[in-house]
Amino acid sequence: MKRILALACALAVSTGAVAQLYKWVDKDGRVTYSDQPPPSLQSKQLNLGSSLPAAPQRSALARDKELEKSRLDAKEKSKVADEAGKKAQVDQENCTRAKAYLRTMTDGGRITTYDEKGERILMDDKQIEVERAKAQKDVDEACKAS
């Protein structure tokens, strides 16, 4: 009994070569395991596969391609992160500018603008109110993510 248990444990632990194994009961009623079939007795062929799947063997070229692909993926992720960072910085600058313009329109005082001829003109109260509403809308849009 101990031999059978030892043989079963050895077969379970070994993951190297997988060979054919035969099992049969001899005339005394003992169960025997062997890699050779018995010459005269009926035996059962056991199929022992590894409990862990064998890792597929990859060539050096396949490993190089996989490594290059992972490098390209990392480079692409880095590029996307950089672009996202730049976009966030531009959005923050736009928000700051919009707030400054709104502050200018809200503080009051003399506000000038330029006409189509390039001449400087003073804005009246109605024009300032329209620009203030427009500036508030710009702040709302530019600063919505902040």
Describe this structure as you would to a colleague.
The protein is an alpha+beta fold. It has three helices and five strands; from the N terminus they run H-E-E-E-H-E-E-H. It folds into two domains: 45 residues, no CATH class; 63 residues, no CATH class. A hairpin with a 5-residue loop joins strand 1 and strand 2.
Tell me the layout of helices and strands.
Blueprint lengths: L1 H12 L7 E5 L5 E4 L9 E3 L13 H48 L4 E3 L5 E3 L2 H18 L4
Antiparallel strand pairs: 1-2, 1-3, 4-5
Helix pairs in contact: 2-3
Note the main attributes of this structure.
146 residues; alpha+beta; rod-shaped
Distance between the termini: 75 Å
DSSP, total strands: 5
As for the number of domains, it is 2
The residue ranges in which pLDDT falls below 50 over 5 or more consecutive positions are none
* SS field, number of helical segments: 3
| Percent of residues in helices | 40-55%
Percentage of residues in DSSP E strands: 5-15%
- Which value, in Å, is the CA radius of gyration? 41 Å
Gist of the model:
The protein is of the alpha+beta class and 146 residues long. The protein contains three helices and five strands. The chain has two domains: 2-46, no CATH class; 84-146, no CATH class.
